[in-house]
Design a protein that fits this description.
By secondary structure, this protein is α+β, with helices and mostly antiparallel strands. It has 6 domains: 2-63 and 293-361, no CATH class; 73-202, PAS domain (Beta-Lactamase), CATH 3.30.450.20; 208-290, PAS domain (Beta-Lactamase); 375-544, 2-Layer Sandwich (Alpha-Beta Plaits), CATH 3.30.70; 553-660; 666-773, Orthogonal Bundle (Arc Repressor Mutant, subunit A). The chain has 29 helices and 15 strands. The chain has a 5-stranded antiparallel sheet. Strands 7-6-10-9-8 form a 5-stranded antiparallel sheet, sandwiched between helices. A 5-stranded mixed sheet has the order 12-13-11-14-15, sandwiched between helices. The longest helix is centred in the N-terminal third of the chain and has 71 residues, at 2-72.
Length: 774
């Protein structure tokens, strides 16, 4: 009888263990299936979103480069090249000016390698090189190809162009944009074309793998399957449309992804259509790399299932020891097989099993500690998804919020961006991270006192704060913004009191939906950039920012003409005063920071051109590839001003050294005196001066450029315009009379030249001069 009961108990214990096994592993399996499907979708969506971001960045860059080509074709010199019949001297002078325009654009734009203009009617090329038949077949093959092209512009596949003209030439991979002149025309009326050669390696840097895309490969093909951008330079310009996966994506939808075999490896192929150029950005990720996170999750769930099964089975054995001897024997058997820690001789099976369970509980506590340590990362991920519009509702991120103990109201949100001032004075990046961590904790405490919010460090020394309000009344939006300003002020005071440091806070507008949080975040970052103008230790809202482009932009640009004149005459003291007034105007009119940087870049480029005209090397003083980055590193306006002054002082010193090394030419002194005395003669020209002083026109032009660093026409126009300014400001004479007094018989030509140089018509200039005097 006892034997029969023992067998039945053994059978019951076995059935119970089987039920526990099935319950644990079925629960884990269902969880894995659900989580696996969700994670696959997230991985695919993440790769597609990254490709769309690369598409936006590439499209914006290409449009800006196309805009540069269009702007070039609007210059008078380019119009003269295509439309006017010029004699040989005029053609050479005009080609020289066009080449200068092209050089300025190439030097100021990192992505452009070279630009070429070709007139089909004149069969003339302006590129800085001598055109040969071999060039026509290689570097300039676009000329014949584009002659009968029906469209207005065309993106050519990647090809090689020469960088040198030696016997052993060096080639560079370029992508060429060809655009017609005129921009709009009827069939048969095309006069010429402009080709913009873009550096393939620089363009590829826009789409190359980032830290978030360390796996796989990314490249660009055109609509015919020809490789445009690729990490493997040997594949550039090759047609790969015969590959099955390329043929499939060319025939498929504009955006999408699919699985295919690529180079005998099962891979996922993601692609988006670049509408502006009709290219496709393709990303290929091997399946084993793409599913690596899924494998980690699967293995983790299997281990968790084993642990749960062991815990459940052990607990059942402990409870039934005093009732079921077979279960007791089962525990003894399991205890003998466990090897978590050494067993003592005087310990029985239950003591050993108890110690084993204790170790499991310790492991659980350690796992709980690891989860707590991962909360900052989860908070950062939650904040990133809300700020980047990856989530459109709070319900989609409730599981994150529950794990990190965060709650947000669903109605109203405002975003604040916080940046520590003078970060270079902080001892180490670790100290800066600690400051940011403490600031985020204080921000959440201040917000949660009356409302709800979340804060996290998004970049070194920069924090993002989302504050939410439990109020759907539209009339309360202004009051919510005032609450955000009050919290920001408390944060600023806390940092100043306890850290002995200062912060600047940019605040966006109040938005009503989770999906609109990114707009408030973008506004807060734009407001934060105004720290350059307003200064640090401030709170900046949208009301503090001037809307749209500053109305003083043209005036600020014109102010650089006077500074360029001071550089030419080497008046360093006057130049410093002019720079000081220029930067005071920036602060007075709240000029946007990006506009300030652009104005400084344009001014230093003009100064570099002046210095380069007499042979001064300026690239080492103001490197082309670091111009914007160099200026963006300054946080205060006075630092930018000091940098500008220092750069100009070096320009002036270099120009002085260059001029002192040149020989003085008495003939030029006599010519200059003659021009100063007879500038009002309408027939004053190089031919007249050459005849007057009995020298050749070409030699006189050469001497003039060497000594005055500009050509005769520009120098004469400057003298005439300066005299015209004096007459306009000091007299009430008619515009026609003033034009004749400074050497212009055609008043329309005078008005056109005056406006081009000063930016104002003579009447507008006179009105402004009289108002300033009043």
């Amino acid at each position: 009888m006892n034997l029969f009961q023992n067998r039945r108990l053994v059978k019951a214990a076995a059935i119970l263990s089987m039920i526990l096994f099935l319950l644990v592993f079925s629960s884990i399996f269902i969880t894995y299936l659900v989580f696996n499907d969700q994670l696959k979708r997230q991985l695919a969506d993440t790769n597609m979103e990254l490709l769309r971001q690369l598409d936006n960045k590439l499209e914006l860059t290409l449009k800006n480069l196309d805009k540069s080509a269009i702007q070039l074709m609007k210059h008078d010199e380019v119009i003269r090249f295509f439309d006017h019949e010029l004699d040989e001297q005029e053609s050479r002078n005009n080609s020289f000016r066009v080449s200068n325009l092209i050089t300025n654009i190439v030097n100021s734009t990192e992505q452009i390698f070279s630009m070429d203009l070709y007139s089909y009617s004149k069969q003339r090329l302006v590129s800085g090189n001598t055109l040969t038949e071999q060039d026509m077949l290689q570097d300039f093959s676009w000329i014949n190809q584009f002659a009968e092209f029906e469209g207005l512009s065309h993106w050519m596949p990647t090809h090689k162009v020469k960088m040198t003209l030696t016997n052993y030439p060096i080639y560079r991979n370029v992508v060429t944009l060809v655009r017609t002149y005129p921009l709009l025309h009827t069939p048969g009326s095309r006069k010429g074309a402009i080709a913009v050669n873009l550096k393939e390696d620089v363009l590829y840097n826009l789409i190359r793998n980032t830290d978030r895309m360390e796996e796989g490969q990314t490249f660009v093909i055109d609509g015919e399957g020809v490789v445009i951008l690729h990490a493997d330079k040997s594949k550039l310009g090759k047609d790969i449309s015969e590959f099955p996966y390329i043929s499939r994506l060319l025939q498929g939808q504009q955006d999408g992804y699919f699985q295919s075999e690529v180079e005998h490896i099962n891979s996922s192929v993601f692609y988006v259509h670049e509408a502006y150029t009709d290219w496709k950005i393709v990303r290929i990720v091997p399946e084993d790399q793409l599913t690596r996170p899924l494998t980690v999750v699967r293995n983790g769930l299997i281990i968790l299932a084993l642990v749960l099964f062991v815990v459940a089975t052990g607990t059942t054995a402990i409870v039934g020891r005093w009732t079921y001897k077979p279960v007791n024997r089962f525990i003894r058997t399991m205890s003998n097989r466990l090897a978590v820690h050494p067993r003592q001789n005087n310990a029985d099976e239950f003591q050993y099993f108890e110690s084993t369970v204790e170790h499991i509980l310790q492991d659980r506590e350690q796992l709980h500690m690891q989860v707590n340590e991962s909360k900052p990362l989860l908070k950062w991920r939650l904040l990133s998804e809300l700020l980047s519009n990856q989530r459109s509702s709070l319900q989609a991120v409730e599981h994150y919020m529950d794990r990190i103990g965060i709650r947000l109201h669903p109605n109203r949100f405002v975003v604040m961006s916080v940046d520590f001032d003078n970060k270079q004075d902080i001892a180490s990046p670790r100290d800066l991270q600690l400051y940011a961590y403490a600031l985020c904790n204080v921000a959440e405490e201040l917000m949660n006192a009356e409302n709800r919010g979340i804060a996290a460090e998004m970049d070194t020394g920069k924090c993002a704060v989302i504050m939410s309000f439990d109020d759907s009344d539209e009339a309360e939006a202004e009051r919510h913004l005032m609450r955000a300003v009050a919290v920001a002020d408390l944060m600023k005071n806390f940092v100043q009191e306890y850290f002995n440091r200062t912060i600047t806070i940019g605040i966006g507008d109040v938005v009503e939906q989770v999906g609109a949080i990114r707009y408030s975040y973008k506004q807060s970052l734009e407001a934060l950039r105004y720290k350059l103008v307003i200064g640090g230790n401030t709170i900046i809202t949208q009301e503090d920012i001037a809307s749209g482009q500053s109305p003083q932009f043209h005036r600020l640009l014109v102010m650089t003409d006077g500074m360029i004149a001071s550089i030419k005459v080497l008046d360093a003291e006057k130049l410093r005063q002019q720079v000081r007034r220029w930067f005071e105007a920036f602060a007075e009119h709240s000029v946007p920071p990006e506009m300030i940087v652009q104005l400084i870049v344009q001014f230093l480029m003009k100064a570099s051109t002046v210095a380069a005209e007499i042979g001064v090397e300026t690239e080492e003083l103001f490197p082309e590839q670091y111009r914007i980055e160099l200026l963006n590193q300054y946080e205060r306006l006075e630092h930018l001003e000091q940098y500008t002054v220092n750069a100009l002082d070096i320009f002036i010193e270099r120009i002085k050294e260059k001029r002192s090394s040149r020989e003085k030419n008495d003939v030029i002194d006599q010519v200059l005196l003659y021009i100063q005395t007879h500038y009002m003669r309408s027939d004053l020209s190089l031919n007249l001066l050459a005849s007057e002083f009995r020298i050749s026109v070409s030699h006189l032009s050469k001497l003039f450029k060497e000594q005055k660093e500009c050509n005769f026409i520009d120098f004469l126009m400057e003298i005439r315009m300066n005299k015209a300014k004096e007459l306009l400001a000091e007299s009430e004479e008619k515009i026609r009379d003033i034009a004749e007094q400074v050497g212009y018989t055609n008043v329309n030509s005078f008005v056109r030249i005056f406006k081009k140089i000063t930016g104002l018509t003579p009447t507008e200039f006179r009105s402004r001069a009289q108002s300033e005097d009043a």
